[in-house]
Amino acid sequence: MGFITRCWKKTGLELLHSLVRLLCVGLLSVPGAWAQNASIELTELKVLRDNGSLVLNAQLSLELGPVLEDALAKGVALHFVAEAEILRDRWYWTDAQVSYAHRYYRLAFQPLTRRWRLNVSSEPIAGTGLAGSISQHFESLGEALSVIRRQSAWKLVDLQNLSPDARQRVRYNFKLDVSQLPRPFQIAAGGLSDWNLQVSRTLRLSQDMVR
């Protein structure tokens, strides 16, 4: 009898997990297949000198599509991460990381006010909470996305920390951070293309840029 009870408990838990996954898949994959999918493209990436530093300008063509918008409307916050690192070539070992900068974005819909809240931070928002981030409110999703799409005058490194005679490059990456979703959503989103938003590019720094 004990063995049968344990089997029923195990089967019941597996059934519950399956139902949760199915529910999440349904939430993450509606509405219909004819709707425009989420997409991302890096339309501009520039590195400039500014007051003794290198700064980065990036412009994204980011469209969430109905799947991600529907998840937002149902109370799921979306987290995005922008990363930029400067690497120095080394023939005798792996390339040296000269600097590393990142920005974290948390986008959420507030049903009571019908407004969109965007938090921006230089530290992971999940770990520090919202207190250490800059919070902005918008009347529309498009206004909130425009802030994420445009990253201007983002300081990467002081010029004095760069070697004028070395070969160096900037590697930029932007992605939707699925790891910040609730665990059942992470499992459900793993095989869906709408949730696989990521773009990367590398720029070689000229010697004139770093002198």
Strand content: 35-45%
Q: In angstroms, what separates the terminal alpha carbons? A: 79 Å
Radius of gyration of CA atoms, rounded to a whole number: 21 Å
Number of strands: 9
Low-pLDDT stretches: 3-34
Silhouette: elongated
Q: Tally the helices.
A: 6
- Secondary-structure element pattern, one letter each: HEEHEEEHEHEEHEH
State the helicity in percent bands.
Answer: 25-40%
Structural class: alpha+beta
How confident overall, as mean pLDDT? 83
Total separate domains: 1
Largest sheet: 6 strands, antiparallel
How are the strands ordered across the major sheet?
A: 6-5-4-3-8-9
SSE inventory with pairings:
Blueprint: H1 2-29, E1 39-50, E2 53-63, H2 65-73, E3 78-88, E4 96-110, E5 115-121, H3 125-128, E6 134-138, H4 141-149, E7 150-158, E8 168-176, H5 183-189, E9 198-205, H6 207-210
Antiparallel strand pairs: 1-2, 2-7, 3-4, 3-8, 4-5, 5-6, 8-9
Helix pairs in contact: 1-5
